[in-house]
Design a protein that fits this description.
alpha+beta; 10-stranded mixed β-sheet; 5-stranded mixed β-sheet; 15 helices; 29 strands
């Protein structure tokens, strides 16, 4: 029951330690502390020809094999450089482990030679291994795709030089020393090749994005049908040999490699129609005006590339059978399989150096993106669940993300769009330009921000209401509301905006969970002891598209010096009915310190509570739904409340 504190880890001293041998304990500590960074370096240097799944597993295997065996000294390391702008604490242990990681990653790109014993890094890793699944990093935007393609065209030493320059922030002299120590023969050539890529803050932001984060992964199954067929084929191999002559003599050309399974582009009418651009459903531009409902089913096909049959064919084919080079992501509870029939075309156009196609099959929206101006290369495929969408939740879709910005395509019934900073409750909304096809101008995306200096939300107005939407890292933005669970309203009044100003910075905990809408509700107010002002108690609930996986948190908002100061999270819960339509009651408490230095246990319940009590280390009870009991620092107590019928209910979480 303690408000959360923000801890600032002190930076280590910039003075480099003296050179000398590196002990195993130093190397082990560096590996544990900087494991995500070392794995990212290995993944970037490894040859892209390995495929994303093997690159991920090999990067982890290389990092885990980078410690020397035994307990003796690991050997000398170069004099570590001071902490630079990148924030890398390059101590001798880290420098030693990084050198071993680079050497192994470079060896993995060497060709296998006949009559020569292969090196360990050239072979597939035995461990780690994930049976039956493919793992890969989360999808990035068009800029990350373009950078990955340019890196794949470089040699391994050139990739290593670029990574050391940008990600590690090294000068060329330092890069030369590290590459030479890693066994690179032609260091000047590697540096010259790396000069072709931009070396700046934008490149570093791309290298540190989720596109190359090998510790935050997505999984997809391997070809389940093919695995099952191979297992059956091993059992019936003798029988198949006995009757193969008869089978080959049958009409129809005989069996294919996959037995009775359909070929890649199935020969049944429904599957063929799903892959035919000419069969795509296209809604008339004015259909939404006469429709009984407003959702994605009445969106017209918009964009400059709606007649590009080749692009639409590629988008449908990748949806049906994504290849190994396709980055696939889906919100929780969303299937990524092919459509059952011809989907509906929502949008096809060029957005921020990418060709983008949005398709809808009644349950899901799929976004296909490929680099513009290229005849081949990587593609991205994203899915979001949208069943049960209404006028508010079908108001906009994310069409692109670039350089920390997001662009939306809005519904045809949206008349005006604007940007509102939730952390500035008194500020006015800023108008946002929009193209004829509904695509908005770029606006800052809080889902990609590293801090919380501002929280720009999209405000859409359809003539009847102004709704607030925010990007939480998915195709569908989440709608923000304020008020009791049974009657939430849009964020329009001063009280609602003041409450959300102190709540917005807590939204990152709800990213990438398939969130449909987030409602914040002030369920109690409490006069603080010793005349320290009045505090507000809020319950914030995030509902998902799939129904399950809801997230609930309670906040304690004491008086603050600035409007955007985040409240203290008192409790959290998942898959809880509390603070919802079915069970609106909620109870939470915190340990709070007054301005005079006295500690108190504070608690508040919603209107359903008749009395509150604390027990355990403290004893106290009050009639009503707010409580304040003197306590000591670090005190722990059990909080409970009674309903009017005498039922005892515990606190949230």
């Amino acid at each position: 029951m303690r408000p959360q504190d923000v801890l600032n880890t002190p930076a280590p001293s910039a003075a480099p330690p003296a050179p000398g041998p590196v002990e195993v304990e130093q190397a082990e500590a560096a590996l544990i502390e900087h494991y995500p960074r070392l794995v990212r370096i290995a993944y970037l240097v490894l040859p892209p020809s390995l495929g994303r799944n093997r690159r991920v597993l090999t990067a982890h295997a290389i990092a885990q094999r980078s410690l020397p065996r035994g307990r003796a000294a690991a050997g000398p390391a170069a004099v570590p450089r001071p902490r630079g702008a990148t924030g890398t604490a390059a101590g001798p242990g880290y420098a030693f482990v990084r050198g071993r990681v680079l050497r192994q990653a470079l060896e993995a790109g060497l060709p296998l030679r006949r009559l020569a014993r292969p090196r360990r890094a050239q072979l597939p890793p035995l461990l780690p291994h994930v049976w039956g699944l493919r793992v890969f990093p989360r999808s990035g935007g068009a800029d990350e795709l373009a950078l990955d393609q340019r890196l794949s065209a470089l040699s391994g030493p050139a990739r290593a030089a670029f990574v050391l320059r940008v990600l590690e922030g090294m000068a060329d002299d330092e890069v030369r020393e590290v590459l030479a120590a890693a066994g690179v023969d032609d260091v000047p050539a590697a540096l010259a090749d790396a000069d072709g890529l931009p070396n700046g803050g934008r490149s570093r932001a791309l290298l540190t994005s989720s596109e190359f984060d090998v510790c935050s992964l997505q999984v997809r199954p391997t070809d389940l049908m093919r695995r099952r067929q191979h297992a059956k084929a091993g059992v019936v191999a003798a029988l198949a040999l006995a009757v193969c002559g008869a089978l080959l003599g049958l009409p129809g050309g005989g069996w294919g490699r996959d037995g009775a399974a359909a070929p890649p582009y199935a020969r049944n009418p429904a599957a063929e129609a799903a892959l035919d651009p000419g069969q795509l459903a296209r809604v008339p531009a004015t259909a939404w005006q006469a429709s009984a409902r407003r959702d994605f089913s009445v969106w017209p096909a918009r964009g400059s590339l709606t007649d590009d049959r080749a692009l639409l064919r590629r988008a449908l084919a990748v949806w049906a059978r994504p290849g190994a080079g396709v980055q696939v992501s889906a919100t929780p509870g969303t299937q990524s399989g092919p459509p059952m029939g011809p989907p509906q075309l929502l949008f096809a156009g060029e957005v921020d150096q990418a060709r983008v196609v949005l398709l809808y099959d009644g349950l899901r929206v799929a976004r296909y993106a490929e680099p513009a101006g290229a005849d081949r290369g990587g593609a991205a495929l994203d899915f979001a669940r949208t069943d049960g969408a209404d006028t508010a939740s079908a108001s906009a879709l994310v069409v692109g993300r670039t350089d920390g910005n997001v662009r939306y395509v809005t519904a045809p019934w949206v008349r005006r769009v604007a940007v509102r900073d939730l952390l500035d409750p008194a500020g006015a909304a800023r108008p946002l330009d929009r193209e004829a096809d509904g695509v908005t101008a770029p606006m800052p995306s809080p889902a990609q921000a590293r801090g919380c200096l501002g929280w720009d939300a999209l405000e859409v107005d359809d003539g009847s209401a102004a709704r607030t939407l925010t990007d939480l890292g998915e195709l569908t933005p989440a709608r923000l509301t304020y008020g009791p669970p049974a009657a939430p309203k849009d964020i329009t009044g001063a009280a609602a905006r003041a409450s959300w100003a102190r709540t917005a910075c807590l939204l990152p905990g709800m990213r990438a969970h398939g969130v449909r809408d987030v409602n914040s509700w002030q369920y109690a107010q409490q006069s603080l002891p010793e005349a320290n002002g009045t505090a507000a108690w809020l319950c914030t609930r995030a509902e998902t598209w799939r129904g399950m996986g809801s997230r609930v948190m309670t906040q304690f908002q004491a008086p603050a010096a600035r409007p955007g100061a985040p409240g203290a999270v008192a409790a959290r819960a998942e898959d809880s009915p509390s603070c919802g339509v079915r069970e609106p009651r909620v109870l939470a408490g915190v340990l709070w310190k007054s301005q005079a230095g006295q500690w108190y246990v504070l608690a508040a319940g919603s209107a359903q509570f008749a009395s509150l009590a604390v027990s355990g280390g403290l004893e106290g009870e009050t009639a009503g739904r707010v409580l304040a009991v003197r306590a000591k620092e670090g005190a722990r107590a059990e909080l409970s409340g009674r309903l009017p019928d005498g039922t005892r209910v515990g606190a949230l979480g």
